[in-house]
Amino acid sequence: MFNKQELQIMGKTLMQRREWLIKNLDSPEMQTSRAQNQQAIQLLDGILSKLSKQLQTETGDTSQVNHYVSTKAASPTKQAAQIRRQQLMPDQMRVLVVDDDSLLLELLKAMLNAAGIEKVELADNGMKAVTMMFDTNPVYDLVLCDWHMPEKNGIDVHTAMRASERYHHTIFMLVTAVTEAKQIREAIDEGVDDYVVKPIEQDKMLKKIARHFPQLKVN
Q: How far apart are the C-alpha atoms of 87 and 76, rounded to whole Å?
């Protein structure tokens, strides 16, 4: 058994490694091993959680446990969803694109198709998007949704989607002309995974999608 000091040293070392991996995850030199590094981060989260529990046992006081070993491990369902996304090939992805601009809908579909994403469905308003999400099986892996739409806006669609347990781990990206950092940060705080700014540039959009689906190869 390790004593308290040894556990704290181990925790600090592992946390430093975790922070380094997260910081460098999207760097060009790390792209070839991105999936393996994401799995390493998940493994470190689990180890750090166990170390935290062990320190609680050693001290008998949760308030004395150092913060660097108090990271909460991802749930088994979240870990399974992350691993699935890492392995999902572009032609297996199911994508829903939502926008009240029919021309933009077709443009986004063409961009996704060109990248090898074949299963793309379209909704021209937020209400239709919610209906499609709850009627389809299996669920969509990615939802690209315009922010400003009549009836239900992008945040409304996101809220309705997350209300369903089976959509807790679907990637939701806002497509928006909003560039103010505060508004985007508020959306991220609400659980939105990422965003694409209009006018849409194909390369930038695909790179953002590839952060979540690493089998999508981009230049």
A: 17
Q: Evaluate whether residue 163 is within a structural domain.
A: yes
Of 45, 74, 103, which residue constitutes the final position of a domain? 74
* Average confidence (pLDDT) over 65-72: 44
| Spatial separation of the C-alpha atoms in residues 41 and 25, rounded to whole Å | 10
Residue 211 has which token pair? 């952060």
- Same structural domain, 44 and 112: no
Q: What angle do CA 174, 154, 219 make, to 5 degrees?
A: 15
Domain membership of residue 161 (yes or no) is yes
pLDDT digits (tens, 9 = 90+) for 134-183: 999 999 999 999 999 988 999 999 999 999 988 989 999 999 887 777 88
